[in-house]
């Protein structure tokens, strides 16, 4: 059981305005943002562990557009015993490029626990450490089996195993 400190710290496009509700949701559902993850970011409880996972991915993808708002979402949907400090979640990370759900176990409206296996693709425009001028962007994938639990009707991210 390992925690993955790199996910949540996500990134978005700095200097952009509030997410456009009509654009496609970053989670890749094919819905627009308003009809998908926006309602969870604005306070509605995610009905399933997968919906929560998608909304947390979207929050990471949009983080740079409103770090305080999206970091607060990541923080309140993260189990109290495993979550980082709120201030650690606002730091910019890589640019998230796409999400693919591989598998889900339980995590439905009648479950109290669930897991979601996913692959998230990212690009780190700053290049590898140590930073070098003109370094090529680094692309990578995060493959994680995440565990979730439902508490007072709200799904929470607990931890995950990277593979
Ligand atoms: Zn979405």
From TrEMBL:
Q: Name one Pfam family in it.
A: YchJ_M-like
Which Gene3D superfamilies does this one have?
3.10.450.50
Q: Know the name of this protein?
A: SEC-C motif-containing protein
Stretches of the chain forming a coiled coil according to its record? none
Which residues are in the YchJ-like middle NTF2-like domain? 48-160
Q: Where is this region: Disordered?
A: 1-23
The record's annotation in InterPro entries points to: NTF2-like_dom_sf (IPR032710), YchJ-like_M (IPR048469)
């Amino acid at each position: 059981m390992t925690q993955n400190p790199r996910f949540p710290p996500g990134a978005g496009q700095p200097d952009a305005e509030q997410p456009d509700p009509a654009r496609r949701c970053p989670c890749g559902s094919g819905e627009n943002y308003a009809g998908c993850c926006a309602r969870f970011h604005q306070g509605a409880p995610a009905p399933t562990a997968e919906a929560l996972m998608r909304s947390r991915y979207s929050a990471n993808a949009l983080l740079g557009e409103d770090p305080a708002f999206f970091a607060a979402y990541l923080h309140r949907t993260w189990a109290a015993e495993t979550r980082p400090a709120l201030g650690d979640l606002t730091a910019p990370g890589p640019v998230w490029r796409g999400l693919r759900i591989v598998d889900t176990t339980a995590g439905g409206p009648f479950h109290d626990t669930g897991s979601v296996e996913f692959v998230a693709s990212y690009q780190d425009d700053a290049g590898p450490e140590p930073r070098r001028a003109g370094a090529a962007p680094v692309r990578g994938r995060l493959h994680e089996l995440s565990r979730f639990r439902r508490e007072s009707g709200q799904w929470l991210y607990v931890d995950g195993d990277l593979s």
